[in-house]
Structures are given as structure tokens and as C-alpha cells.
Design a protein that fits this description.
CATH topology of the largest domain: BirA Bifunctional Protein, domain 2
CATH class of the largest domain: Alpha Beta
Number of helices: 16
Structural class: alpha+beta
Oligomer: single chain
Largest sheet: 9 strands, mixed
Helix content: 25-40%
Distance between the termini: 24 Å
Length: 483
Amino acid sequence: MKRDELSKVREEKLNKLEEKGVEPFSNKFSISCSLSQVNQQFKEFEGKPVKVAGRIMSVREHGKSTFMDIQDKDSKVQVYYKLDTVGQETYEILQLLDIGDHIGVSGEVFKTRTGEITIVAKELLPLTKCLNPLPQKWYGLQDVETRYRQRYLDLVMNGEVKDIFLTRSKIITGMRSFLNKHSFIEVETPMMQPLPGGALAKPFITHHNALDIDLYLRIAPELYLKKLIVGGYEKIYELNRNFRNEGTSTRHNPEFTMLELYWAYADYEDLMEFTEQMFNELVKETKGSNEVIYQSQKISFPEKWERITYAEAFKKYCGIDVEKDSEEQIRKEAKKKGVDADDSFWHILDSLFKKFAIPNFIQPIFVTDFPIELSPLAKEKKGSEGKIVERFQPFIGALELGNAYTELNDPREQEKRFKKQTQMRDKGDEEAHPLDKDFITALEYGMPPTAGLGIGIDRLTMLLTDSKSIRDVILFPLLRPEA
RNA sequence: GGGGCAAUAACUCAGUUGGUAGAGUAACGGCCUUUUAAGCCGUGAGUCGGGAGUUCGAAUCUCCCUUGCCCUACCA
């Protein structure tokens, strides 16, 4: 049957309800308890009157009596009504109910002889009519495209999807309370920026009419947050969206949620410990243990995570000595390994690392001490002769979950780095960091020694919900509009 | 951007070597007052993603397009 024919049937029922004086879209229905309360505290509720509400998920008619399952935010209860108790007139009205309708039920709690917790209805009224047929109950909604485009249907039909976003909420709440507990202050900085900075990525561009200026959706809040450290805050964080004008993949959505925190008088070593603590606590809170299964792999969160330097990882997984091997040698090796050798040298290194090293980082690990060329905002490591920065990235389940470093606070050095980036930009590197004079000025006023950390909330949620694709942890992932 | 796979009823899916489209669920009608993937009897339901081609004949073969998924590239 065509969709509109099915909807027409429902519209006719709606009309009949109105004819009978029943409002098919109510303003209010006060419940006395939730369905999970009825289920969990059955003994206290047994034989007592309750008022509950929910969406009809299935109906079993038996002539002069009817069973239906109703579902609310997190639970399901059977409702039962019979001709005897509701009367002929009401029973006829109830024939006009459909799967998908929201109803309010007043009745008494009991158990059927098969042991099912049930509410026998004294009064039962439609709260909201559902005009479109719901997907079928047994197989739920499988079609991936419909699940993303009409996420509400996915949530109605697939309970485990609701759980994923519940976990996401727990992660964000848990993170905020962890940070607040450690005296961090939540701040908000511009999402629309005249100059996009703080990361190496392509921005979205937009326009402000009154000022007649182009603005960029932020690729990161980093530079603004550091200005606040200059201003005298010592522990701050921002937990919100970033936007990057890039392709999508199972690990990338153009808008994604990031935690960034800055901590004055700390360095990246302090932050590694802080990150361990925060992750370990979040895992415990959301999973109830210090273990997670991600894509069939068991991941344990020890008190102290493994650490490996970028150079060590290169040696171990790519067979390349980044400190000693010449650029020519490395390019040759890259070509042998199937990595595009025409790219700029640092991109080749990055590609090699992603292809050969990252897949091995299943258990929690910090990769530390990156080459300076890949990190224009990080402070150089003492004694590294300007080659290496104090930076780390946490990896778990082969997912890159964040990025952190001791912040570069020398305005002269920062300007030099920006100029180098500008040269790369002139050579066609669209992602090179633009020179931000305002930021340099801020640094000239003096930013205390500071460490900064960014955590990808979406990827962390993937890890803790065993999701393969980032689209499964974003309620409305970006899709091409339907033709 | 490149490659692979997919799209059939509202939902979940079958559909053989090319021969005029099928099931279950949902819907509608009937029977049924403790069922639970209720059951039984009956009815209706389709631009086979879109377009072109090959053919006497296309859901099926070819090409183009659309959308999605996976891989890859780009991207911390």
C-alpha cells in the first residue's frame, strides 16, 4: 500500500476522533510515574492506580479485549483494556488508535497469568495522533540513510541508538564535572572569526552584512583561549563545536565537538597525567569498569598509560629513523610503501605515520615529541635543537582522540613560525596556519607557561559506545540533501 | 577526487539462464475477553532509485545520472 493511502486511513481515524469529541492533539496529560518505575517497582505499584503515558508500539486485539505495548523514554509496559471495564462507546473510540499514537492511560497495575506486568486501563485517551505509519517492529529501521535523515524514527524504533546518545550525554556531563571539580572555568569564544586559526585545516566562510566582512567558522578556539590565559585566567576550557571544510568519513564530520582546555603553569607532562585521570574516570562512570570493548578488541585503561615518542614509533612501525635518515631516503621508503612521494616532506611523514603506526595503537597510549614543522603553536622541547616540540596525542582503539602541547609563549618565536607557515601557504598549502597579528600582540603582553589539550568528543563517544562510524554518534550527521 | 558495493510495497527482504512482481510485517474487512513477533479466514497495495539503450520481451544485460555505504585520498 502506498504511503499516502496509509496516511489517509489514519487521517480518517483522526477525523472520526474529532467527530466523537476527542481531541487528537492534547495540550497536557499529567503522569504519576514513568514506565520504568512501574517495571522496576512493580511490588509497590501492584494493585494501585497509576497514570502513565507512552507511544503505542504494538497492538494485539482479541475481539472484546485488547493488549498494547506502550513505550516511553526508556521503558515499555503492556496496557490492557476490555469492553466490560471501558464501555462500548470508549471501546469504539479506542478502535481508532494506531501504532505510533501517543496515549495517556489511567489504570491499575497487575500481572497477567503469563507474568507480564500490565496496566489494566480504566481510562485511555489519545494524546497525539501519529499520521504516518511507523517502521515495522521486529526488524526496526535498518536503512542507514533513513536512520540518519529521520533520526527521530531511528530513536523510536532502535533502543540501542537512544543508549548511544545517552552515553554521549554522560560523557559530556562527566567531563564538565571533572573539569569543574579541578577548578577549570568554562568559557565561550567566537565561533565566527575574522581569521581562522588554532589548527591546520580549511575553514567554512560566511559573510556579515552589516559590517560587510567575511567571517570564518572556527576550526579551533585555541588562539582566543590563549588570549584569556594572557588575561589572567589560569584554568579554562571550552566544550563546543568546530567546523572544518573537509570531506566526510567514518572518523570525520564537518562539524564536530571538541574539548579544549588551557592550564597555566603546567606543561604537557602534567597534562598527560590529567588526561589519564580524566579518561579513566569517564570510562569508569560510563562503562562501570576500566575496560571497553571496541570493535571486538578489549581495551583496558591502566592508571599509567603507555608512552612512545614519535621518532620511536616511526622506527618501530615504519622502519624509518626520522632523526638520522635523509629526506631522500625517507621519500624512497615512502614510495616503496605506497605513500604518495610527490607530496611535501612533512605530509609524507604524516601519511606514513597514519598508515603504519596508528593502526597499532589499540591500548591507551600517548605519542609524544612531534617534529616542530607539524606543530606551529607548540613549544619546543629543551635540548632538541629546535627540532621537536613538547606535544602528545592520545590514541585508543586506533583512534586519534586528541592533541596537546606545552604552549608556545614566546611572541618572537611564534611570529617566526607563522612566517614559515605563510611560506607554505604561498607554496599552495591551504591548511598552513595564517599569520595572526592579534595573537602575537596578545603574546607580547605575556602568556605564562601554559599547557593546552584538545579532545575529540565524537571520537571518544565512538570508543565508549563501540561505534564504527562518527555518524552513529552525531544525531544529525551531514548528508547531501535529497534530490 | 578515485575505486568497490547497493537501491524491489509504508517497513524487513526474496526474485534462477532475460519471459509480464513475491513473502512476512504494517493497513483494511471478519472471528476471537489474559495475549505478547497472538492466532485463524479474506482484501487491497509497486514509476523494481531516475533516464537512455540492446532485445519480440528488461527488476535482471549495457551506458549515463542521483543517493547511500565501505575503501582510498584530503583532513590532526
